[in-house]
Amino acid sequence: MSLIDQHNRLINYLRISVTDRCDLRCLYCMKENMTFLPKKEILTLEEIERLCDNFIDMGVKKIRLTGGEPLIRKDIIKLIKKLNSKKYSTNLNEITLTTNGSLLEKYAKNLKENGINRINVSLDTINSTKYNEITKFGNIDKVIKGIKESIKNNIQIKINTVVMKNFNENELEALILWTNNLNI
Question: CA 119 to CA 101: how far, in whole Å?
Fold first, then answer.
């Protein structure tokens, strides 16, 4: 059985949010005082794995784990390891991750060891003052260290930037030059 959308296109890519929680409060994403889903309403890692198995059986070849911030999910590496093992016995080819980067320094090596070869990092500015303003209490230095640690572990990084008028639209060239210097 294959998944086909209303335009008769084959669906082979699944994005799955593993948590609604995040360690940042980016202005355009979360309120400072968020109300999160009760834990009993969040899928367990086993349920997420079963869901992924069903989609893999229907032709999904790529799974992207997202959140909130997926790296704050307890035992996320165990899920990634289980999904990675499916690459050898199913049609699954790739597991990727979208993250704010705040925990990458801690997890980069484990992510690589468990089959993550590409990560999207949400980063709207490299100006520390603006970063603190947009994230409320984020630390740009941790994110940069995490990006560098990921690169050191041969993980490809893609930077996702939300361009906002009167905030960061004049920083795009600097951000591009910065990423080029990282050899992303």
Answer: 9
How far the first Cα of the chain sits from its last, in Å, is 37
- List residues bridging with 122 in a β-sheet: 160
Residue 88 Ramachandran class (φ > 0 left, ψ -120 to 50 alpha, else beta): alpha
* 3-class SS string, 83-150: HHHHHHCCCCCEEEEEECCCCHHHHHHHHHHCCEEEEEEECCCCCHHHHHHHHCCCCHHHHHHHHHHH
Instruction: Tell me the average pLDDT across 116-121.
Output: 98
**CA dist list (Å): 103 to 5, 35, 51, 108:** 35, 22, 26, 8
Instruction: Enter the pTM of the model.
Output: 0.90
Are 162 and 156 in contact by the 8 Å Cβ rule? The answer is no
The alpha carbon of 48 is separated from its chain's Cα centroid by a whole number of angstroms, namely 16
DSSP-assigned beta bridge partners for residue 4:
10
In angstroms and rounded to an integer, the radius of gyration of the C-alpha atoms of the chain is 17
Question: What digits encode the pLDDT tens for the residues 120-166?
Answer: 999 999 999 998 888 888 899 999 999 999 999 999 999 999 998 99
Q: Indicate the helix (H) or strand (E) that contains 63.
A: strand 62-66
Euclidean distance between CA atoms 50 and 148, whole angstroms = 33
